Amino acid sequence: MHQSDKRSANDPTRPGLHVLGENLAHFARPLPDRCPVPEIALGGTQRDHHRPLGETQAAVLRWNWRVGYYTHSALGTDRYPPFTLAEVPGYPAHLHIDYPDRLSRGLVLVKWWLLAIPHYLVLAVFLGTGIPIAQTQNGPVTVNSPGLIGPLVLFVAFELLFIGRYPGGIYDFVLGMNRWVLRVVAYAALMTDTYPPFRLDQGGTDPASPTPQPPPSDAQADPDQPTTTPASAPPPDG
After folding, report:
1. What is the tens place of the pLDDT at every residue in 1-56?
2. CA 133 to CA 236: how far, in whole Å?
3. Which of 47, 124, 154, 236 is 20 to 30 A from 147 via CA?
4. What element of type H or E holds 76?
């Protein structure tokens, strides 16, 4: 899992899924002035007569990511998510999935459950899970684990409330976990045959995302062209 305030990225030729958001290192100044954006990437294959279904599936996942980035998944922006399935260039959170040419028929039978089991174990750590410990007449007794993302975002909420600052290290880590989750979702949802990497790509740039185009050299830049922040640039201090 392309953005406003994009950072530079690697490998512009690699197809994939790109998820992007806004880096809120500090909220003391207006939000758009301090937010470089995060990304995620993946690839795959499929047939043209399934394109409307595949594009709708990607659009719903895009909507889900925008809402999650605004709320429980990151608290990454104060900008309300738009009510549209389409890509919104000016919004700080983006998701792009390259439509595949074809998908393996054999992998369809096993990848969403058997092959994805190792990733599901990782996602249980990130998102939390319920573990049944006893059986009663009213049903199983389950102990729920909150995972890492929920408590970290809750901590960020208090940090923003009392200090007005989003810790850059936590932001990078939270975005890395969300990136991992969305890669696995795309794979398990049969949107790609590319196996998700066991790699926590933290921060605002997905290694497989396209490199942003340089701004126009004319005196008047294109207003739709987002500004860019180098990937090596540290979060701005307040």
Report:
1. 544 344 434 443 344 445 544 433 332 233 333 334 444 444 444 456 578 888 99
2. 46
3. 236
4. none
- pTM, 2 dp: 0.70
In the numeric block, which tokens belong to residue 221? 């830049």
| Cα gap 223→49, rounded to integer Å | 36
116 belongs to a structural domain: yes
* Residue reference for tokens 């810790």: 167
Please indicate, yes or no, if residue 144 is contained in any of the structural domains. Answer: no
DSSP-derived letter for residue 174 is: H
Rounded to 5°, angle at Cα 205 from 222 and 229: 45
Beta-strand (E) ranges in the chain?
Answer: 6-7, 17-20, 94-97, 129-136, 139-145, 228-229
Q: Judge contact between 131 and 143, C-beta under 8 A.
A: yes
Greatest distance between any 2 Cα atoms in the chain: 74
Helix-then-strand count for the chain, H and E: 5, 6
Residue 192 belongs to some domain of the structure: yes
Sign (positive or negative) of CA dihedral 38, 2, 208, 232: negative
The verdict on residue 141 lying in a domain is no
